[in-house]
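User: quick one, sequence for these tokens?
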């Protein structure tokens, strides 16, 4: 494990080559033992496993991460179409929905964020793929 400090922001990063899912919570617990700070730990979605959630709850660890899309509840929530449920962000081009979720027995607050630019980019990529498939169909080259 390597600790990297960002001097301009007072943010410490923990870096490791080990499997994130297996070591995240252990690293956080070790880090917490050495400090007496109120800290929010931010990690990529590898943190989000049933084992890690339970371990963090048992150790009063405050965390923030992206819920991976292999979680069925997450897949279902991102498909929300009702415009009235979305809240316009202060940041232009973004809107969000806040949902209270209980996952693996742990109460959580999930934010579903939509970026207009990302949505437009995704639609353009989809159109390109459809066009490419259409060309293959027309030419008989699958």
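Assistant:
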């Amino acid at each position: 494990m390597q600790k990297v400090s960002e001097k301009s922001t007072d943010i410490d990063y923990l870096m490791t080559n080990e499997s994130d899912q297996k070591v995240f919570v252990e690293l956080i617990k070790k880090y917490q033992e050495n400090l007496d700070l109120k800290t929010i730990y931010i990690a990529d979605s590898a943190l989000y496993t049933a084992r890690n959630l339970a371990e963090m709850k048992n150790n009063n660890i405050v965390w923030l991460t992206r819920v991976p899309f292999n979680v069925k509840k997450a897949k279902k929530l991102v498909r929300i179409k009702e415009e009235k449920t979305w809240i316009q962000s202060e940041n232009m081009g973004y809107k969000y929905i806040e949902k209270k979720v209980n996952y693996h027995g742990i109460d959580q607050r999930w934010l579903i964020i939509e970026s207009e630019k990302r949505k437009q980019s995704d639609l353009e990529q989809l159109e390109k793929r459809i066009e490419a498939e259409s060309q293959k169909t027309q030419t008989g080259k699958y």
